Amino acid sequence: MRYCDPEAVVGCADGTTRVFDMYSSQCSRILRMHDSEVPVTCLGLRDEDSRLLILAAGGSSITMSSGLLPDHELAAKLHVAGEIRTLSYHPCGDDRTVFAGSRDGYVYGWDLRTCRLLWETKVSWGAVCSMQHRRNDSSTLVVGGADGMLRLLDQNTGEVITKIVLDTGYCVLPSTSPASSGGGYQNRVQRLRGRRCSPDAPIDSVPSPPITCLAVGMKKVITTHSRDYIRSWEFNEASRGHSFC
């Protein structure tokens, strides 16, 4: 699901997207984005001149909708070799670029104006599960996936700028522990040291818990993991990309 005021768009298992007006609480439109046997697995939205641009990924293709108007039509369809797991749409300045991560570890960048593939980069042996960029930043894309590494990519070339992992390797961090009195649980917080790896380091050299989802802020990246906990990665600006600490 994605939200762009006042609409919320939900991807469905039958290949459609349903658009809901959050003020009237009504489904205002149902759009056919893929064949009925291809579920919509991830979405990207952008409100441009009162036209809601919808990107819906399903299987190995991304369908782009031109807007929610009576003359609505599917503007384009993009294809990749593997199954798409995540999307990130970045309309920054004059750029209209969509990024996709696949189950087989590739990241792709397309120019939506020409529907041309700009680059593709193999970043991991496992699935790319989540990616995001900082607001109004047209230089860096943050990527996370099954191998547990955070990667910073150049949005223009797809080059891996740096990789960040925990210095302790794979470390199961219990996020909760029984409360000392009464029922329920209390949070447990641990501070760990991160380590930067060179872009050409072996991609499977440091085991780490999988990253299932991430969100990028101005000075932090928040990641969720499959062991019922989240991590907050702090970073500083560097001369080339970002460095984490």
From TrEMBL:
InterPro entries: FBXW2, Quinoprotein_ADH-like_sf, WD40/YVTN_repeat-like_dom_sf, WD40_rpt. Coiled coil: none annotated. Pfam families: WD40. Keywords: Repeat, WD repeat. This is Uncharacterized protein.
